[in-house]
Amino acid sequence: MGKRNAFDEIMGFSGAAPPRPALAALGEWLADTPEHELRRRQEAAETTFRQLGITFAVYGESEASERIIPFDIVPRVFLKSEWDRLSEGLVQRVEAINAFLDDIYGARRILDEGVLPADLVLGNDQFRPEIAGIRPPHGIAAHICGIDLVRTGPDEFFVLEDNARTPSGVSYMLENREAMLRLCPELFRELRVAAVDSYPDLLLETMKSVAPHGAGPTPRCVVLTPGHYNSAYYEHSFLADSMGVELVEGADLIVDDDVVWMRTIEGLVKVDVIYRRIDDDYLDPLVFRIDSALGVPGLIAAYAAGNVAIINAPGNGIADDKAIYSYMPEIVKFYNGAEAKLPNVETFRCREPSALTYVLENLPELVVKLVDGSGGYGMLVGPTASKAEIETFRAALIAEPQRYIAQPTLALSTVPTMADQGLAPRHVDFRPFVLSGSDGVRVVPGGLTRVALKEGSLVVNSSQGGGTKDSFVLMDDGASGSAQSQSADGQTQTMGSMSQNQGGAA
User: Fold this and answer.
1) Residues 6 and 70 in one domain
2) In a domain? residue 149
3) What is the dihedral of CA 70, 75, 80, 83, to 10 degrees?
4) 328-333: long-range contacts (C-beta < 8 A, 24 or more apart)?
5) Rounded to two decimals, what is the model's pTM?
6) Which neighbouring-strand residues pair with 148?
7) Coil, strand, or helix at residue 441?
8) Which residues pair with 66 in a beta bridge?
9) Which letter, b or e, does each residue of 40-60 get, where b requires 16 or more Cβ atoms within 10 Å of its Cβ?
10) What does the CA dihedral 70, 49, 373, 151 come to, rounded to 10 degrees?
11) I need a labelling partner for 243 at 20 to 30 A (CA). Which of 199, 211, 296, 311 fits?
12) Strand pairing class (66-67; 56-57)
């Protein structure tokens, strides 16, 4: 635990029994299941993950570069009322992200009206002038979003960052649920948990819904991977296999007369939708990095001609930028005409002299991040940093303040987690997944809960030693019920895996 009194999502602020009333069934399960049995089940899950090859790469380490993400057997639970509020805020935010991307690569009203400084967008490394004026099929650019959330109290949720490029982690959400269904079936008899197993089908529906006009009733969809050396390759292959579509590398695709074709043993087959897991820089050597061997020459020309949909669209990185994030409340209000339902964490833009002065004076109390950073790299957590680390960041801030933002250190919520000494509170964050297609916006009733396994740590990233938990969304606020949405054999029973909010961005 950190120094602050964190809210425990099962036990409340007291951090001791009894659990919150609506979670009494989970509290009883924790009390009645011996610690050695919890450990046995957790080890069984991790053994399965290892056998399946569910690993990620840790770049820069000389040993154990391929490892599983540690799994924790105690689930994180959201009540239906909590989830309903979160879903409304997520839909509103993703609609605004799509409207923002459509605008800045088009009319740029938000810049003309002075809501955002023009140089913050047009001078940003993540802004892609090469695709300005290109409108994606159906006007949707952010088809798959992972919105990272943190919690500080019973009704206090904040957006930590937006992921609109190639958000990862959905395979862990699905595999974690599969493990829990197999190892802890009694929980699904006690709790009415919304199912997540139809995510691949809904992802495929989303992909088909944004196929270019004229693609026909059965558009051809593929997943484009940089290859098996990529840290998320397992997820790429998992999703392609689950959707029943081809997993391809750049060399498997060619562009002829602004149409994308896939090489097969039976000849060339036209491709309509590409779910790409390759960064913009490597997507098309004729437009971006000329030395890229991962992409497809001519892909952006085919995209500009309206002959292929790319999921997520090129140029989305500008919506991931943490300096842009700091303006999201204004962005939401500009496009949706209402206040943001999910607030940001207070953010200091170090590019602004007054903010820089404050940050430099309070570095030991703040979290400092690169505006284009990810994976927990390039980040300072002031309260746990050494004096040398703080001074290194001080020099970096003075030299290039525009590259950084800073935020207060929040008392992130905790969930009981299996530690060396037994169950203990550990800090968590949450990444729900939001799908946007021509038929509306869907929020998966679940997501990826990441947990900081080190005592007191606030860094949950897998690359920094974090683990994952299954995320239960209850179908009602009661503690138990006889009808489950997902039974112990993994079959969906009574409700769909996603709630849907019709309509595109305002």
Assistant:
1) yes
2) yes
3) -20
4) 328/93, 328/96, 328/159, 328/162, 330/115, 330/116, 331/96, 331/97, 331/100, 331/110, 331/115, 331/116, 332/92, 332/93, 332/96
5) 0.90
6) 161
7) strand
8) 57
9) ebbeebbebbeeeebbbebee
10) -50
11) 296
12) antiparallel
Quick one: pLDDT at residue 318?
96
Task: Give pLDDT, residue 497.
Answer: 36
What pLDDT is recorded for position 496? 36
Domain CATH number, residue 363: 3.30.1490.270
386, burial (CB in 10 Å: exposed 0-12, middle 13-18, buried 19+): exposed
Segments forming the whole domain that contains residue 384: 346-409
Q: Does 504 fall in a domain?
A: no
Strands (E), 282-361: 309-311, 348-349
Q: Are residues 174 and 244 in the same domain?
A: no
Q: Are residues 329 and 422 in the same domain?
A: yes
Per-residue pLDDT tens digits for 432-454: 999 999 989 999 999 999 999 88
What CATH number does residue 259 fall under? 3.40.50.11290
The SS3 call for residue 177 is helix
Domain boundary among 409, 439, 457: 409
Q: Is residue 442 part of a domain?
A: yes
Domain count, the chain: 3
- The two structure tokens encoding residue 8: 């425990």
- Beta-strand runs (E) in 323-364: 348-349
pLDDT of residue 484: 42
